Amino acid sequence: MPHIAHIAVQTPAHSAVGELLSYASEEVLPPGTLVRVPLGRRELLGVVWEPPAAPAPLPEGLELRSVACVLPGLAPLDAGWRRLVAFAAHYYQRSVGEIAVTALPPQLRDMTAEQLARRLAPPKPARKSRKSKAETETEPQACEPVRPQQPAAIPSIALSAEQASVFAQIEQSPGPFLLYGSTGSGKTEVYLRAVQAVLEANPQAQALVMVPEINLTPQLEERFTARFAPLYGAEAVVSMHSGMTNPQRLKSWLAGHTGRARIVLGTRMAIFASLPRLALIVVDEEHDASYKQQEGARYSARDLAVWRGRDAGAKVILGSATPSLESWHASSPTAQGGPGRYLRLAMPGRIGAAALPRVRLVDMTQQPRKAVFSPPLLEAITARVQRGEQSLVLLNRRGFAPVLFCADCGWKSDCPHCSAHQVFHKGDRTLRCHHCGFTQRVPFACPSCGNPDILPLGKGTEQLEEELERVLRNVQRPDGNPARVARIDADTTRAKGALQEQLAAMHAGDIDVLVGTQMVAKGHDFRRITLVAAVQPDSALYSSDYRAPERLFCLLMQAAGRAGRDAGYVAAQGSRAEMWIQTHDPANPVYAALQKHDYEAFAARQLQERQDAGMPPYAFQAIVRADARTQEAAQAFLNAATQAARDAQLPWLDEVFIYPPIPMAVQRVANVERAQMLLEATSRGALLRFLNHWQPWLHWLRGQGEHRTIVRWLVDVDPLSI
Ligand code: ADP
Ligand code: ZN
Ligand code: ZN
């Protein structure tokens, strides 16, 4: 008599999601066991799950297919990991199978059982004496963490008074903590100490440290490896991010799963790492939008970190110089005067008494028209080049110009497939759509009227680079060499290793002026930058997205944090750290707060506005989006979905406000029309429960008559932009 196993698998996107699939198995398979199962003509990776509360009776005469195999040599995924996956599926309205399988390393999906067995086989005794790299990769599965090889040495760096006080509180309270510390206040050092403390307290404990960007992981890995490899061995620190090869990812994942890795560093995907002894989670730059996945399951790794920490009994530290308004709110006293849900720990000072840069606003309405750079900014940059200091120029738009334009007939370089312009890239003379990727050669004359004089309108990073090269052509560095201008954006860093190379050149002082997008504004510990300039940040202030000012403020604070990080250097140079902002709206309160480095005033104002308007974090939102060949079809689906909820009188509907569908800001992408509908509730629980009831109806509706033409639909819970 075979047993029935309930398996979480990733079913094709079109079928209804949400259920586990049942298979026959000769033996009882404990939950968490990794298996392969047949589905249609394919064989898929699956995870044995707990039986559903009310198992559906098997249809008469249906024969269960059998589990194809159990993946050999792998301990089952533990209950904590399964709870995390189940929670994420429930919260973000996806299937358990989808979250579970996509959380596992891709190679587990693709390897045959034999390949995996070979990969995991205990090393042959004959080879055991050799300490080759291959051998350490194939160590057996037993949870045998590397023990400290020497008594943990106190690192030579003495904590500052602020760091010491914060660290003491982390030791004493359960958290979660919001570490609110200026850029350069030494937050990373606090993370290192907190990790060290949990590893010392428990010889098997594991820590997870997350950063928002792949390009920040090497820097972090260096610091953590330098600190912990001497104590716990080089194998104890592993990374997890999408820039790694599949074998590397599998290796890191196994190290975490088996307990060999004591510290996992990674981007948002690392939140789903199997870490049976998790004792600490750090989320650095917790405000960063990159923690929110924008494809498939739209989870927030930051929010899941808080949930996972509480569930696993692990401490959670969220760190930022400009916390998200959600976290700031959560760490503020409640309206009744009680303590917030998070414990706020502040580190206002910069290490080494480095001053935060002076913020200078340039009123562009008083500058020569059409000037890319105002004359005083150019002077300031030139003077720095001549003194051998570095400058960073930020513009969040790559390419040469966002659009080409014909002054005679009004033609614009619109993308034929999207409701967006094609961006002019001068380097390779192309017009490229940044939404669908459609690329064309730049036409010799206006395609509409033949006018040979088509003009670039607006500016992108390429243009800034060209302009700076022109202006600084005859400017010399102290060593007599000509000024060097470089650019870092998605276009210059496509080649593997290109970004690291360019960052290294910046650190080495080979670059005098770096032009870049927000990629370079975050996290990097550049030592010789004394000037940061944002040349055109205003557009964010007029965006319809209510989070745009928050994002702009964070980005500019972060960017400012790149200037003057080394007080000794700034003083020795006789220079001063400055942040320049070119704006047409110098009186805007966002800039006034920035000038005072006053995050708290900014946050208080924003939160007040949000409260008055009934916006998050005082309300909870979800978006339902539909894509279709026509805007009417997309909106019809959303309208029908609302009607279905009303007709069925779904529970909690009364507590959820459903707005009418509207076209998305970029309405058409790759010939697909996109519409969305906002849902709002004052209770998170009500919104969630309503969505859980509604979801099967959305699946059902999609299969009905006219709605079959819907290209896709999705739910985004806690969306970052609406
Ligand atoms: P943050 O993460 O807040 O931006 P970091 O931890 O990177 O700041 O610290 C900024 C700089 O100060 C780094 O170069 C770091 O090595 C140094 N630093 C941090 N803490 C100390 C300390 N207690 N004593 C001396 N230097 C420190
Ligand atoms: Zn024309
Ligand atoms: Zn396009």
From TrEMBL:
Keywords: ATP-binding, DNA replication, DNA-binding, Helicase, Hydrolase, Isomerase, Metal-binding, Nucleotide-binding, Primosome, Zinc. Component of the replication restart primosome. The keyword Flavoprotein does not apply. Zn(2+) 1 binds at residues 406, 409, 446, 449. The keyword ATP-binding applies. Belongs to the helicase family. PriA subfamily. It holds the Pfam family PriA_3primeBD. CDD domains: SF2_C_priA. Initiates the restart of stalled replication forks, which reloads the replicative helicase on sites other than the origin of replication. Recognizes and binds to abandoned replication forks and remodels them to uncover a helicase loading site. Promotes assembly of the primosome at these replication forks. It catalyses: Couples ATP hydrolysis with the unwinding of duplex DNA by translocating in the 3'-5' direction; ATP + H2O = ADP + phosphate + H(+). Gene3D superfamilies: P-loop containing nucleotide triphosphate hydrolases (3.40.50.300), PriA, 3(prime) DNA-binding domain (3.40.1440.60). Binds 2 zinc ions per subunit. This is Replication restart protein PriA. NCBIfam families: priA. It comes from the Bacteria. Zn(2+) 2 binds at residues 415, 418, 433, 436. Residues 117-149 are annotated as: Disordered.
